[in-house]
Amino acid sequence: xxxxxxxxxxxxxxxxxxxxxxxxxxxxxxxxxxxxxxxxxxxxxxxxxxxxxxxxxxxxxxxxxxxxxxxxxxxxxxxxxxxxxxxxxxxxxxxxxxxxxxxxxxxxxxxxxxxxxxxxxxxxxxxxxxxxxxxxxxxxxxxxxxxxxxxxxxxxxxxxxxxxxxxxxxxxxxxxxxxxxxxxxxxxxxxxxxxxxxxxxxxxxx
Length: 206
Ligand SMILES: [Zn+2]
Description:
Layout: E1 3-4, E2 12-18, H1 25-34, E3 40-43, H2 51-62, E4 66-69, H3 82-100, E5 106-107, H4 116-124, E6 128-130, H5 144-157, E7 165-170, H6 174-189, E8 193-194, H7 197-201
Parallel strand pairs: 1-6, 2-3, 2-7, 2-8, 3-4, 5-6
The chain binds zinc ion.
Zinc ion binds near residues 18, 70 and 74.
């Protein structure tokens, strides 16, 4: 799976949270667990130098969520040399393995900033590139209610027998802190099964 924007089977939805663990991580984790909703966290390597954040991520791993690679410090990949790009990915994978004991398969480029030139060294390392097809812009200054309304409209217009979602969210956003339960309910009430990124892009693969 070199590059994924959507799941391999319709009816699946992967909620993904980038840049963490940050301010509302514990709340997000609690909400996910309360709803038995799996999710995937694309984390920054530098955050794993903080033992408190490692502990939070360990709780996420124990609860069955997936941890993946968002680079070391949110550098824009298009501004880096290939050696710097490889270092972003490899150092983050190494600290995730060291602190959490888990391997990673996917890299999500910060800001989605990736072209074929940056893809090649990442594929050469054996990673897939994890993009998305749903971006409710929860990082914007818009009120959480408006963001949730947009998600409801997009999911309402979709068809779970033909469509799937990979949703870009951030655990730092007020929407994640206050509205995640509603977002989970929106997807489920329209017939979607929430899955981790692995299960989204591996669905149906023998
Ligand atoms: Zn990011």
